[in-house]
UniProtKB/TrEMBL annotation:
Protein's name in the database: Elongator complex protein 4
Organism of derivation: Geospiza fortis (Medium ground-finch)
One Gene Ontology biological process: tRNA wobble uridine modification
Family: Belongs to the ELP4 family.
Keywords: Cytoplasm, Membrane, Nucleus, Transmembrane, Transmembrane helix, tRNA processing
Keyword Membrane: yes
GO cellular component, one term: cytoplasm
Cross-referenced InterPro entries: Elongator_complex_protein_4 (IPR008728), P-loop_NTPase (IPR027417)
Chain's gene name: ELP4
Length: 364
């Protein structure tokens, strides 16, 4: 794995990328560390591609988010990083790779990293920030909830809370005035609008779905997504939303949120869990769950052979790889780890095993 791109790299392996007019939902990890990073990758790719950006948040000011975008790597820098990473393999890692249990000897070899250089999109260095000059090269639109809400008593539009209503009005205005309306013929050259909404559904948006199993207004979030999806369908825009799904206690609401999204990806961080110290997952920082992929021009969606993905964050790299089991268990592995290994083996038998048989690896 190399310097990772935005979350499209995960979806590329499943459905071919994020299409214009679709909605990508990211279920945040517990502390929001990695979901925030993927959110910034999506925005950074938009700037490098020359797309217009619309950033909305109730948590932190959009200007501060844009200041924290990772710096893009040039092709020559990317090749150098790739060469340095290949040369950084430790001798003990090579020795460990030689310890293959007899039951794994006849299985096909599975590659977690590409053997050749495959260029897809752009790559970024998380240890460096994008230059202000590059950020200012595209049109940036921001929505900070605490600056947008009126001082008069709260009123409901579209029968939802005022925060969601104001956000929809801003998105609708930018789509209409910016020339992104697909139904309106435009004479000038068209561009793509990337919409990023951070931590939608949290208490900061004035929604109580994260506070109670029986919220007072359980329909605001789903109504917002329903109207937003209609705006996306007729516009030249793509949207990414992060949602604190682990805080939403009402599973029925989360099911409706999933159904109203085109694709859903969940991040499970190992921070604070037993897997953080489990030798089985020592090389990873969390798991990536692809819950739903879109149905584009078809009655049913494509089903990926790879269902087990893991990620890890290094000093310069955020990598997403196929999760595979180690071939050898040392004496230091606990009984609980061995039970976890046995359970994972059944889960991975249909995922990674199928992917290893003749499937071409995609760099993501």
């Amino acid at each position: 794995m190399m310097i990772v791109q935005y979350i499209v790299k995960v979806i590329v392996m499943c459905s071919g990328g994020v299409a214009v007019g679709t909605l990508l939902l990211i279920e945040e990890d517990k502390y929001g560390l990695y979901s925030s990073l993927l959110f910034k990758y999506f925005l950074a790719e938009g700037i490098v591609c020359g797309h217009d950006l619309f950033v909305a948040s109730a948590k932190e000011h959009p200007d501060n988010i844009l200041k924290e975008l990772p710096a893009p790597l040039r092709d020559d820098s990317y090749r150098k990083e790739l060469g340095d990473e290949a040369a950084a393999v430790k001798p003990e890692d090579f020795q460990d790779s030689m310890k293959i249990a007899w039951r794994y000897q006849n299985l096909p070899k599975m590659e977690t990293s590409p053997t050749t250089y495959t260029k897809f999109g752009h790559y970024y260095d998380v240890s460096k920030k994008m230059s202000p000059e590059l950020c200012q090269s595209v049109k940036l639109h921001s929505f900070y909830l605490h600056e947008e809400l009126p001082l008069e008593p709260k009123t409901k539009t579209w029968n939802m809370n005022s925060g969601y209503a104001r956000l929809l009005q801003s998105i609708q205005r930018i789509i209409s005035q910016g020339g992104f309306d697909g139904s309106d013929p435009q004479k000038k050259q068209r561009n793509v609008l990337r919409i990023g909404i951070q931590s939608l559904g949290s208490i900061l948006w004035g929604d109580d779905v994260c506070c109670s199993d029986a919220p007072e207004d359980p329909q605001s979030l789903t109504k917002f997504l329903y109207v937003l999806r209609g705006l996306l369908r007729k516009s030249l825009s793509a949207c990414i939303i992060t949602v604190p799904a682990h805080l939403i206690q009402n599973k029925a609401i989360m099911e409706r949120v999933t159904n109203l999204s085109d694709m859903v990806v969940g991040l499970e961080s190992f921070i604070g869990s037993e897997r953080e110290t489990n030798p089985l997952y020592k090389d990873y920082h969390g798991l990536v769950h692809v819950h739903q992929i879109p149905r584009l021009n078809s009655l049913i969606c494509d089903v990926s052979d790879t269902k087990d993905l893991a990620f890890r964050l290094k000093r310069k790299q955020f990598t997403i790889e196929r999760l595979h089991l180690p071939p050898d268990l040392s004496d230091t592995v606990s009984r609980a780890s061995k039970q976890d290994l046995a359970g994972s083996a059944e889960l991975l038998s249909s995922g990674c095993g199928a992917m290893a048989i003749g499937k071409k690896h995609l760099d993501f």
